[in-house]
TrEMBL record:
Domain of life: Eukaryota
Keywords: Membrane, Transmembrane, Transmembrane helix
Protein name in the entry: G-protein coupled receptors family 1 profile domain-containing protein
Record field: transmembrane: 54-75, 87-108, 128-150, 162-182, 207-228, 249-269, 289-307
Lipoprotein found in the keyword field: no
Keyword field contains Transmembrane helix: yes
Protein backbone atom coordinates (compact mmCIF):
# COMPACT_ATOMS: atom_id res chain seq x y z
CA UNK A 1 0.00 0.00 0.00
CA UNK A 2 1.19 3.60 -0.55
CA UNK A 3 1.24 4.47 3.18
CA UNK A 4 3.69 1.68 4.07
CA UNK A 5 5.92 2.66 1.13
CA UNK A 6 6.20 6.25 2.43
CA UNK A 7 7.07 5.02 5.93
CA UNK A 8 9.85 2.76 4.62
CA UNK A 9 11.41 5.52 2.47
CA UNK A 10 11.31 7.91 5.43
CA UNK A 11 13.17 5.39 7.61
CA UNK A 12 15.82 4.91 4.92
CA UNK A 13 16.45 8.66 4.71
CA UNK A 14 16.76 8.91 8.50
CA UNK A 15 19.28 6.03 8.63
CA UNK A 16 21.35 7.57 5.83
CA UNK A 17 21.44 10.95 7.60
CA UNK A 18 22.54 9.36 10.87
CA UNK A 19 25.42 7.48 9.23
CA UNK A 20 26.70 10.60 7.45
CA UNK A 21 26.54 12.72 10.59
CA UNK A 22 28.43 10.10 12.60
CA UNK A 23 31.19 9.83 9.94
CA UNK A 24 32.00 13.54 9.88
CA UNK A 25 33.97 14.82 12.94
CA UNK A 26 32.78 17.93 14.73
CA UNK A 27 34.10 21.27 13.49
CA UNK A 28 35.71 22.14 16.83
CA UNK A 29 38.14 19.19 16.62
CA UNK A 30 39.32 20.11 13.11
CA UNK A 31 40.13 23.67 14.16
CA UNK A 32 42.10 22.76 17.30
CA UNK A 33 44.26 20.01 15.76
CA UNK A 34 46.58 22.38 13.72
CA UNK A 35 46.97 24.65 16.73
CA UNK A 36 48.08 21.74 18.93
CA UNK A 37 50.54 20.56 16.28
CA UNK A 38 52.17 24.00 15.84
CA UNK A 39 52.38 24.41 19.61
CA UNK A 40 54.21 21.08 19.94
CA UNK A 41 56.61 22.06 17.15
CA UNK A 42 57.34 25.33 18.87
CA UNK A 43 58.09 23.61 22.18
CA UNK A 44 60.40 21.11 20.45
CA UNK A 45 62.26 23.91 18.62
CA UNK A 46 62.69 25.90 21.84
CA UNK A 47 64.02 22.78 23.52
CA UNK A 48 66.67 22.40 20.81
CA UNK A 49 67.68 26.06 21.16
CA UNK A 50 67.86 25.83 24.95
CA UNK A 51 70.10 22.77 24.86
CA UNK A 52 72.41 24.46 22.36
CA UNK A 53 72.46 27.48 24.67
CA UNK A 54 73.56 25.32 27.62
CA UNK A 55 76.36 23.71 25.61
CA UNK A 56 77.56 27.05 24.28
CA UNK A 57 77.49 28.57 27.76
CA UNK A 58 79.97 25.91 28.89
CA UNK A 59 82.25 26.57 25.91
CA UNK A 60 81.96 30.33 26.38
CA UNK A 61 82.94 30.07 30.05
CA UNK A 62 86.03 28.00 29.21
CA UNK A 63 86.94 30.34 26.38
CA UNK A 64 86.52 33.42 28.55
CA UNK A 65 88.81 32.01 31.25
CA UNK A 66 91.36 30.99 28.60
CA UNK A 67 91.23 34.44 27.00
CA UNK A 68 91.78 36.22 30.31
CA UNK A 69 94.73 33.99 31.10
CA UNK A 70 96.21 34.58 27.62
CA UNK A 71 96.04 38.33 28.03
CA UNK A 72 97.61 38.01 31.50
CA UNK A 73 100.36 35.83 30.04
CA UNK A 74 101.16 38.32 27.28
CA UNK A 75 101.26 41.16 29.81
CA UNK A 76 103.68 39.19 31.98
CA UNK A 77 105.87 38.46 28.94
CA UNK A 78 105.94 42.14 28.01
CA UNK A 79 106.83 43.17 31.58
CA UNK A 80 109.65 40.63 31.67
CA UNK A 81 111.15 41.35 28.25
CA UNK A 82 109.95 44.95 27.70
CA UNK A 83 108.93 43.94 24.17
CA UNK A 84 106.73 41.51 22.24
CA UNK A 85 107.71 39.79 19.06
CA UNK A 86 105.65 40.63 15.99
CA UNK A 87 103.85 37.30 15.99
CA UNK A 88 103.12 37.51 19.71
CA UNK A 89 101.66 40.98 19.17
CA UNK A 90 99.34 39.61 16.46
CA UNK A 91 98.33 36.76 18.77
CA UNK A 92 97.65 39.21 21.59
CA UNK A 93 95.38 41.30 19.36
CA UNK A 94 93.71 38.14 17.99
CA UNK A 95 92.90 36.89 21.50
CA UNK A 96 91.62 40.32 22.50
CA UNK A 97 89.18 40.48 19.59
CA UNK A 98 87.88 36.97 20.27
CA UNK A 99 87.44 37.77 23.94
CA UNK A 100 85.40 40.82 22.94
CA UNK A 101 83.35 38.63 20.59
CA UNK A 102 82.51 36.33 23.50
CA UNK A 103 81.30 39.32 25.50
CA UNK A 104 79.12 40.45 22.59
CA UNK A 105 77.58 36.99 22.40
CA UNK A 106 76.01 37.41 25.84
CA UNK A 107 72.88 38.83 24.20
CA UNK A 108 72.21 35.37 22.77
CA UNK A 109 73.00 33.51 25.98
CA UNK A 110 70.79 35.72 28.12
CA UNK A 111 67.63 35.65 26.01
CA UNK A 112 67.49 32.40 24.01
CA UNK A 113 65.23 30.69 23.04
CA UNK A 114 63.62 34.15 22.83
CA UNK A 115 65.36 37.18 21.30
CA UNK A 116 66.60 40.49 22.64
CA UNK A 117 63.89 43.16 22.43
CA UNK A 118 65.41 46.44 21.28
CA UNK A 119 64.99 49.19 18.72
CA UNK A 120 65.99 48.81 15.10
CA UNK A 121 68.93 51.18 15.58
CA UNK A 122 70.24 49.27 18.60
CA UNK A 123 69.95 45.95 16.80
CA UNK A 124 71.78 47.33 13.74
CA UNK A 125 74.56 48.66 15.98
CA UNK A 126 74.92 45.28 17.71
CA UNK A 127 75.13 43.49 14.36
CA UNK A 128 77.68 46.04 13.11
CA UNK A 129 79.99 45.59 16.10
CA UNK A 130 79.81 41.78 15.97
CA UNK A 131 80.64 41.67 12.27
CA UNK A 132 83.44 44.23 12.72
CA UNK A 133 85.12 42.30 15.53
CA UNK A 134 84.76 39.01 13.63
CA UNK A 135 86.32 40.50 10.49
CA UNK A 136 89.17 42.04 12.50
CA UNK A 137 90.09 38.62 13.87
CA UNK A 138 90.07 37.12 10.37
CA UNK A 139 92.27 39.91 8.99
CA UNK A 140 94.72 39.29 11.82
CA UNK A 141 94.88 35.66 10.70
CA UNK A 142 95.77 36.96 7.23
CA UNK A 143 98.63 38.99 8.74
CA UNK A 144 99.81 35.92 10.66
CA UNK A 145 99.87 33.93 7.43
CA UNK A 146 101.83 36.74 5.78
CA UNK A 147 104.36 36.77 8.61
CA UNK A 148 104.78 32.99 8.81
CA UNK A 149 105.00 32.29 5.09
CA UNK A 150 106.89 35.24 3.60
CA UNK A 151 108.80 36.40 6.71
CA UNK A 152 108.88 40.14 5.83
CA UNK A 153 111.76 42.30 7.11
CA UNK A 154 111.27 44.26 10.30
CA UNK A 155 111.52 47.68 8.60
CA UNK A 156 108.36 47.16 6.52
CA UNK A 157 105.35 49.32 7.23
CA UNK A 158 103.11 46.37 8.10
CA UNK A 159 105.48 45.32 10.88
CA UNK A 160 104.63 48.45 12.88
CA UNK A 161 101.92 47.69 15.47
CA UNK A 162 100.12 51.04 15.20
CA UNK A 163 99.91 50.87 11.41
CA UNK A 164 98.77 47.24 11.53
CA UNK A 165 95.97 47.84 14.05
CA UNK A 166 94.78 50.97 12.25
CA UNK A 167 94.70 49.19 8.89
CA UNK A 168 92.80 46.17 10.26
CA UNK A 169 90.20 48.24 12.12
CA UNK A 170 89.69 50.70 9.25
CA UNK A 171 89.19 47.93 6.70
CA UNK A 172 86.77 46.08 8.94
CA UNK A 173 84.73 49.20 9.69
CA UNK A 174 84.37 50.10 5.99
CA UNK A 175 83.33 46.57 5.00
CA UNK A 176 80.82 46.30 7.86
CA UNK A 177 79.36 49.72 7.05
CA UNK A 178 78.63 48.37 3.58
CA UNK A 179 76.98 45.31 5.12
CA UNK A 180 74.97 47.52 7.48
CA UNK A 181 73.66 49.45 4.48
CA UNK A 182 72.58 46.22 2.83
CA UNK A 183 71.04 44.95 6.05
CA UNK A 184 69.08 48.05 6.95
CA UNK A 185 66.57 48.32 9.80
CA UNK A 186 63.68 45.90 9.54
CA UNK A 187 60.75 48.07 10.68
CA UNK A 188 62.23 51.50 11.31
CA UNK A 189 64.98 52.79 13.58
CA UNK A 190 62.89 53.49 16.69
CA UNK A 191 60.40 50.63 16.59
CA UNK A 192 61.17 47.93 19.13
CA UNK A 193 61.09 44.25 18.27
CA UNK A 194 63.10 41.03 18.39
CA UNK A 195 66.75 41.57 17.43
CA UNK A 196 68.36 39.19 14.94
CA UNK A 197 72.10 39.53 14.47
CA UNK A 198 71.88 38.74 10.74
CA UNK A 199 68.19 38.62 9.85
CA UNK A 200 67.14 36.35 6.99
CA UNK A 201 64.55 38.97 6.09
CA UNK A 202 67.36 41.14 4.70
CA UNK A 203 67.40 38.88 1.67
CA UNK A 204 69.82 36.74 -0.27
CA UNK A 205 71.88 39.79 -1.30
CA UNK A 206 72.89 40.53 2.30
CA UNK A 207 73.66 36.88 3.10
CA UNK A 208 75.75 36.51 -0.09
CA UNK A 209 77.59 39.79 0.56
CA UNK A 210 78.42 38.70 4.10
CA UNK A 211 79.59 35.32 2.84
CA UNK A 212 81.97 36.95 0.36
CA UNK A 213 83.27 39.91 2.38
CA UNK A 214 83.50 38.48 5.88
CA UNK A 215 84.36 34.86 5.06
CA UNK A 216 85.58 34.09 1.53
CA UNK A 217 87.94 37.01 0.89
CA UNK A 218 90.01 36.62 4.12
CA UNK A 219 90.38 32.89 3.57
CA UNK A 220 91.22 33.27 -0.11
CA UNK A 221 94.01 35.65 0.95
CA UNK A 222 95.22 33.14 3.53
CA UNK A 223 95.19 30.33 0.97
CA UNK A 224 97.12 32.44 -1.52
CA UNK A 225 99.75 33.33 1.07
CA UNK A 226 100.11 29.70 2.15
CA UNK A 227 100.57 28.57 -1.45
CA UNK A 228 103.16 31.31 -2.08
CA UNK A 229 105.00 30.39 1.10
CA UNK A 230 104.97 26.71 0.21
CA UNK A 231 106.38 27.40 -3.27
CA UNK A 232 109.02 29.69 -1.80
CA UNK A 233 110.10 27.12 0.78
CA UNK A 234 110.25 24.38 -1.84
CA UNK A 235 112.51 26.46 -4.04
CA UNK A 236 114.81 27.34 -1.16
CA UNK A 237 114.65 23.78 0.23
CA UNK A 238 113.58 25.10 3.60
CA UNK A 239 110.91 24.16 6.06
CA UNK A 240 107.30 25.16 5.52
CA UNK A 241 106.02 28.21 7.44
CA UNK A 242 109.61 29.41 7.98
CA UNK A 243 110.29 26.47 10.31
CA UNK A 244 108.38 28.27 13.07
CA UNK A 245 106.88 26.41 15.99
CA UNK A 246 103.80 28.63 15.70
CA UNK A 247 103.00 27.13 12.28
CA UNK A 248 100.94 24.13 13.54
CA UNK A 249 99.10 26.37 15.99
CA UNK A 250 98.19 28.80 13.21
CA UNK A 251 96.92 26.05 10.90
CA UNK A 252 94.83 24.49 13.68
CA UNK A 253 93.28 27.79 14.79
CA UNK A 254 92.48 29.01 11.29
CA UNK A 255 90.93 25.65 10.40
CA UNK A 256 88.65 25.74 13.45
CA UNK A 257 87.51 29.28 12.68
CA UNK A 258 87.03 28.32 9.02
CA UNK A 259 84.56 25.53 9.76
CA UNK A 260 82.58 27.64 12.25
CA UNK A 261 82.33 30.57 9.84
CA UNK A 262 81.43 28.26 6.95
CA UNK A 263 78.63 26.59 8.89
CA UNK A 264 77.07 29.89 9.92
CA UNK A 265 77.42 31.54 6.50
CA UNK A 266 75.84 28.60 4.67
CA UNK A 267 73.00 28.37 7.21
CA UNK A 268 72.32 32.12 6.86
CA UNK A 269 72.30 31.93 3.06
CA UNK A 270 69.99 28.92 3.12
CA UNK A 271 67.63 30.67 5.54
CA UNK A 272 67.53 33.77 3.31
CA UNK A 273 66.61 31.60 0.32
CA UNK A 274 63.75 29.98 2.24
CA UNK A 275 62.43 33.27 3.62
CA UNK A 276 59.85 33.52 0.80
CA UNK A 277 58.11 30.54 2.38
CA UNK A 278 57.77 31.28 6.10
CA UNK A 279 60.43 29.52 8.13
CA UNK A 280 59.24 26.75 10.40
CA UNK A 281 60.09 26.64 14.09
CA UNK A 282 62.75 23.97 13.53
CA UNK A 283 64.48 26.03 10.84
CA UNK A 284 64.52 29.05 13.13
CA UNK A 285 66.04 26.85 15.84
CA UNK A 286 68.67 25.67 13.35
CA UNK A 287 69.64 29.30 12.65
CA UNK A 288 70.02 29.87 16.39
CA UNK A 289 72.26 26.80 16.65
CA UNK A 290 74.32 28.11 13.71
CA UNK A 291 74.77 31.40 15.56
CA UNK A 292 76.04 29.53 18.61
CA UNK A 293 78.46 27.60 16.37
CA UNK A 294 79.82 30.91 15.06
CA UNK A 295 80.51 32.20 18.57
CA UNK A 296 81.93 28.81 19.61
CA UNK A 297 84.76 29.40 17.14
CA UNK A 298 86.06 32.12 19.46
CA UNK A 299 86.11 29.80 22.47
CA UNK A 300 87.82 27.01 20.51
CA UNK A 301 90.43 29.43 19.15
CA UNK A 302 91.31 30.77 22.59
CA UNK A 303 91.62 27.26 24.03
CA UNK A 304 93.81 26.14 21.11
CA UNK A 305 96.13 29.12 21.49
CA UNK A 306 96.44 28.45 25.21
CA UNK A 307 97.28 24.77 24.70
CA UNK A 308 99.49 25.04 21.59
CA UNK A 309 101.45 28.27 22.09
CA UNK A 310 104.56 27.26 24.03
CA UNK A 311 105.07 30.37 26.25
CA UNK A 312 101.38 30.42 27.23
CA UNK A 313 101.42 26.69 27.87
CA UNK A 314 104.45 27.04 30.13
CA UNK A 315 102.79 29.89 32.01
CA UNK A 316 99.74 27.69 32.49
CA UNK A 317 101.89 24.90 33.91
CA UNK A 318 103.59 27.37 36.22
CA UNK A 319 100.21 28.62 37.44
CA UNK A 320 99.05 25.07 38.16
CA UNK A 321 102.34 24.37 39.95
CA UNK A 322 101.93 27.44 42.16
CA UNK A 323 98.32 26.51 42.86
CA UNK A 324 99.39 23.00 43.85
CA UNK A 325 102.06 24.34 46.19
CA UNK A 326 99.58 26.71 47.80
CA UNK A 327 97.06 23.93 48.36
CA UNK A 328 99.52 21.66 50.18
CA UNK A 329 99.11 21.29 53.92
CA UNK A 330 101.70 23.31 55.84
CA UNK A 331 102.57 20.37 58.15
CA UNK A 332 103.04 17.86 55.40
CA UNK A 333 106.54 16.44 55.19
CA UNK A 334 108.34 16.34 51.87
CA UNK A 335 110.67 13.31 51.74
CA UNK A 336 113.70 13.13 49.48
CA UNK A 337 113.83 16.88 49.19
CA UNK A 338 116.81 18.53 50.90
CA UNK A 339 117.06 22.26 50.31
CA UNK A 340 120.41 23.78 51.26
CA UNK A 341 120.30 27.53 51.58
CA UNK A 342 123.60 29.16 50.54
CA UNK A 343 125.46 31.05 53.24
CA UNK A 344 127.92 33.72 52.13
CA UNK A 345 130.33 35.21 54.64
CA UNK A 346 132.67 38.14 53.84
CA UNK A 347 135.86 38.09 55.94
CA UNK A 348 138.01 40.59 54.10
CA UNK A 349 138.51 43.93 55.83
CA UNK A 350 138.94 47.31 54.24
CA UNK A 351 142.73 47.20 54.83
CA UNK A 352 142.99 43.87 52.96
CA UNK A 353 141.13 45.29 49.99
CA UNK A 354 143.33 48.42 49.85
CA UNK A 355 146.47 46.35 50.07
Amino acid sequence: PPETFQIRTKKKHENHFSTVSSATPPSSNTSTTPNITSFDCRIAANDITSRANYVYSLFASLGFVAGCFLLYSFVQTYRAQRRLTWLNFLLWAFCGFHLLLLLLSLHAVAYRPAYLQTSGLGCAALSFFINTVSLCSLLLLVLMAYTLTLDPPSHMLLRKPAVCVALVILTSVLVCLLLAGLRGPNDGLQKEGPCFMDPVSSGVSYAAARLCLVFLIPYILQLGLLICGCVRQCKSKGRFLSGSEEGPMFLTVTSAVFFCQLFYSVALLRGAELQSANLSYHKQAFLSVAEFVLFSGSSVSLLLVLLMHRPCRENLRGAFRQLRDCCRRPGRTQPHRNIIAPHIEITDTLQDIES
